[in-house]
Amino acid sequence: MIEVRELTKRYGATTAVDALTFTVRPGRVTGFLGPNGSGKSTTLRMILGLHTPTSGSVTVQGRPFADRPRGLRHVGALLDAGDAHGGRTARAHLAVLARSNRVPLSRVDEVLEEVGLGGAARRRIAGYSLGMRQRLGIAGALLGDPPVLLFDEPLNGLDPEGVKWVRGLFRRLAAEGRTVFVSSHLMTEMEHTADELVVIGRGALIAAESLTEFASRGRRLSVTVGSPDRAALAALLLGEGAEVVDDAGLLTVSGLSAARIGRLALEHRVPLDQLTTRTASLEEAFMELTADSVEYLAGDAR
Amino acid sequence: MTTVALPVASVTEPRARFRDLVASEWLKLWSLRSTGWSLFLGALAVVAFNLGTAWDHYRYFLQYDAASRAEFVANDMALWDAFTYNAALVLILASAAMGVVSVVGEYGSGLIRTTFTAVPARGTLMAAKLLVVAVVQAVFGAVVACGSFWSTQAVLSARDIGLPITHPGAARIVVASALLAPVCAVAGMALGAVLRKSATSIVGAVVLLLLLPAVFSDRRHLTAVLAHATPLHAWERLADAGPAVEEPFPWSVGGAWVVYALWALGAAAVTVLAVRRRDQ
């Protein structure tokens, strides 16, 4: 369980994290979403006690993590796949971490096998691909068999097989009753991974709810209608109080159901060649919600 | 979709011990191939500087006139070859650089975040790292200083001008030269912990340990005091074996040992405090 209360971090005049409050519960995978530069990594670092909050508090299993003399058995974390020295072998890297926490050395080989690096364990990390480094980082997080796991953008650089494996791993860890908190800037990554979502933008909380609840936010029902006589149909629908947008030869209608539109068209003898109900995807819901808080927008003239 | 099958049992954890951190830092140091090479090449360079000077004296000793030869023996100049000024400069640079790298290597790669997540007791971890680096550097310094003493005196003995370790001041030269390594390595660690970037930290070490001692003149009281407060001048004072040289502001051997101790303790304190206070 991770409890974040009114967490704020300022660097000079910049507010990186602004009064964040949310709880990450055990037994499920929680996605931590936000556009680039929205304060995800800063929040994760404050959870781990690496950065001191300007105000507010954060506890892991009821205590500030920085108060623990040793961390591996409490929280496993992958912050950045690059957070290792290229000159060491994977095995030496993990052995150093294990030794500091009195984790038996046999556990090092166990986690290396688990993440699929058993064959590369004695190779130096400098020669690893990004995907292999992600796997090494995950191995390090699993080392102490902790009840809480944090992963910052763990899917970067993984091949499709790796992505599938990581998703399965997160599900399994959550099913074992652990708290699993995974950050990402891509909704599509979370769609098949997370049960719960914490969404932030410009350091402030936008949503903290289940994936299903989040999806229903964006569910502004609309119906796409195609007709050879679009003008007549549009006039008809507008007369019924619907919102109509002519979009590339198709009408996007909101405020009326597909059934009602079909009946109206039949009554007024307007031919239809397409009638589709659309629900906004999670990705759209995410884009819509964070649209106002995107920090770095391409082509943004300032 | 959500299944809470087996709640994770409450964490049972063995007691946190300082010696686990020391063992971990020991493993961390020696699991890098560069550690052994740096120590080996550093030792080779320092001994070579001393041996070169001794060889020079051995080679040309018979060409000196009688007065010069008598002066060489009377002033214990054989001890100057045991550890030369140039060798001390090289040792300071090598040890300070190794100290810098032991800290900055973790910041440069980002490993520091992994390290401090595994061990949130950051100050204790740095204390373990200080201990490991200081011990390794003390052994390195001892090997270099002893190797230099015995090899140079062996060469000079071929002209019957070598001196034994029991000669007054000889042992002090060896000990002072050996300890110069851990003192400068710890200073390098402090710079690394404060500056965090390798290039800046190395430049900082060169300025602090080599450049400043060179620019402080010992002709005025203030600059003489500042000069005496540097490890290089302290080493010079301790390695100065011959008859007393006229100095405007003379200082004691005890004072020089105190300078060594204060640098080591001060730098260690800075290293621990720097990582405890700041965001990582």
TrEMBL record, chain A:
Q: Which domain of life is it from?
A: Bacteria
InterPro entries referenced in this protein's UniProt entry, alphabetically: AAA+_ATPase (IPR003593), ABC_transporter-like_ATP-bd (IPR003439), ABC_transporter-like_CS (IPR017871), P-loop_NTPase (IPR027417)
**GO MF terms on file?**
ATP binding; ATP hydrolysis activity
Q: Give start and end of each ABC transporter domain.
A: 2-227
Keywords of the record, alphabetical order, are: ATP-binding, Nucleotide-binding, Transport
The record, for PROSITE patterns, names: ABC_TRANSPORTER_1, ABC_TRANSPORTER_2
- PANTHER family associated with the record: ABC TRANSPORTER, ATP-BINDING PROTEIN
The similarity comment for this entry is:
Belongs to the ABC transporter superfamily.
Q: What is this protein called?
A: ABC transporter
Give the originating organism: Streptomyces viridochromogenes
Automatic annotation (TrEMBL), chain B:
Instruction: Give the UniProt keywords, A-Z.
Output: Membrane, Transmembrane, Transmembrane helix
Q: Does the keyword Methyltransferase apply?
A: no
From the record, give the transmembrane residue ranges: 37-55, 83-105, 126-150, 170-191, 198-216, 257-275
Q: Which domain of life is it from?
A: Bacteria
Q: What is the lineage of its organism?
A: Bacteria, Bacillati, Actinomycetota, Actinomycetes, Kitasatosporales
The protein depicted here goes by the name ABC transporter permease
